[in-house]
C-alpha cells in the first residue's frame, strides 16, 4: 500500500509538471529557457513529454497489475461483508463491547415490536435469529455500502491507468524499441519522409499538428517527438477555405476561426465546417482543434537600402514569407530568410512604461546568413514608431536566439520617410564629397580672412575626421583621439572633434539637398535634432551586422491556421474512471458503516450494543443518543 501510494504521488507530481511545463516544444526552445545543463537533465528525465515517457508508462502498467490483483483478492471479502449481518454474535462477545447498554422491559413481545420500529425509522436493515437459550438476537446494519468505496476507488485507478496507457501510444514505443519505427530529425519535405518515420491511419492514439495556409489542403499531420517528428497519415484530407480573426480596439487578437472542408472518399460530397477555439470538429474519432495561427506565405515588396555606399536609392526586392532571396555577389553574397510577418504589434512605447499599449503596425522577421552559414536575426517595423516624442524607423537585431534584441533607431524625416536619412548617409559616406564638405564647413567656420595655411590645415583635419567617421563612426573617432592626443587633453579634443563633425554634417545635409534638386532652407531646431540623431544612427550602423536595411513597402497578407488533431480513445476511460474515483472517495469518507445488536432475553432483559467501522466522536455521540431514545422507548409504560 505504501509503495502504491508513493507511485501515485510520483504520477501526481509528474502530471503537475506536464501541466505547467509546455510539452513537446522544439528542443531549442527548452535550451533557451533552461540552459544547457538543466535542458540535458530534464531531457534525461523525460519531462518534455511526461505522459509518453517510458518510466511514466511503466508506473501505469505496474499500478494496473497491482491494483487489479488487490481488487481480485479483496473484492469477494468486501462483498461478503457488505451482505453479512454478523448474526452469529454471542452474548459474551456482545457484553465485551465498549458501547453497550441494558434495559429491563415489561414484555419482550412489545419490546421487540418497538425495537423493529426504532431500527426501521433510522434506515437500519436487520435480521432476527433465535438463540438456543430462547433469546432473540436482532442484528442490524446501516451504511454497508461504504465498502463499495474501496472497490470503486481501486477500479477507478485501473480504468484511469488503462486509459493513460491507451493514449500513451504504447504500440509506437514497442515498435521504436524493436527498430520498426524511427523518429525523423532532418528538416525535409513531407513526401520525402521515409516509411519508418510515418504512422498509418490505424494508429491507435496520437496528438499531432498541422499548419494550413488559406486555400491549401493536406492529409498528413506532424507529431513532435523529442528532437524530431513523425508523420501521421489521416484517413481524410483537410482544406482551409478561409481563416478569420477579430481584434480588440488595441489590435490584440479577440477570436479566430477557420472554415474547413473535409474531403473523404466515404462522403458523397465534402463536409464543410467552421471551427474556433474550444469548438472543435470531431470526425471519424479525430478531433480537429483550432490551436493557433501564423503567416501562410505573405507576399512582400521591400526596399533594400545600402548602408555603407554612396547610393541613397533602394533596390526593389520581392519575396514571400518562408522563402529566401540572395543580395550581393560572390563571397559577399548574403542570403535573406524571411520567417514571419505580423500585421498587428501591440507595444507600450510610453517613456515611463505606464501608458496604454497600442498597435504600431506590421513588422517582418528575417535572418541574414553569410557564406559561412552564420546568421543574425532581424525584426523590422514597417511604419516609424513614436519614441520620446519623435518618430524613428526601428529594427532589432540579435546574433543568437538566446540574446536580447538590440535596436537600431533611424530618425524619420519631415515626410516620415527614410529618404532624408539615407540621403544624408550617402553624402557622409561618399569619399569623393569629403573635400567639398570640408571646404564648405571651413568657409563657414573661418570666413574669407583666415590665413590660407591655417585654412588648408583645418580643411585637411575636417577631411580626416570625415574619413574616420566613415570608417567606424564614433568608435573610430575615439580611437583616433586615443592614438594622437595625450590623455589629459582627450576630453577637450573629443568635444572639439564632435563639434567639427556636427558642423560638417550640416554641410553634408545641405549638399545632399542640392544634389537631389531640393530646396535648401535655413536649419531650425528640428533639423539640428534630426542631424544629431542621424549621426548616432550612422555610428550604430557599424554594429548592425548587415550592409543593408530592409524596409517593408507593400504586402499581400496570406494567413495560415494552426490545427491540432487528436485521436484519444482512452479519454472516455479517464473521464469514466474519474467519476468512479469521486464516487468511491465519497463513499469511503462520507458513508459510515454502523452495526447494532439487540439481544432480547427471556428474563425481560434487552442488551443493546453498537459498533462502527470508524471509532470516533461521531460514534460516541450517536450511541449516547440511541441509548437514551431506547431507554425512553423500552421502559415507558
Account of the protein in words:
With 637 residues, the chain is α+β, with helices and mostly antiparallel strands. It has 15 helices and 26 strands. The strands form six sheets. Strands 14, 15, 18, 19, 20, 21 and 22 form a seven-stranded antiparallel β-sheet that branches. Strands 1-26-25-3-2 form a five-stranded antiparallel β-sheet, covered by helices on one side. Strand 18 and strand 19 form a beta hairpin. The longest helix has 33 residues.
Short description:
By secondary structure, the protein is α+β, with helices and mostly antiparallel strands.
Question: What keyword list fits this structure?
Answer:
elongated; 26 strands; seven-stranded antiparallel beta sheet; five-stranded antiparallel beta sheet; alpha+beta; 637 residues; single chain
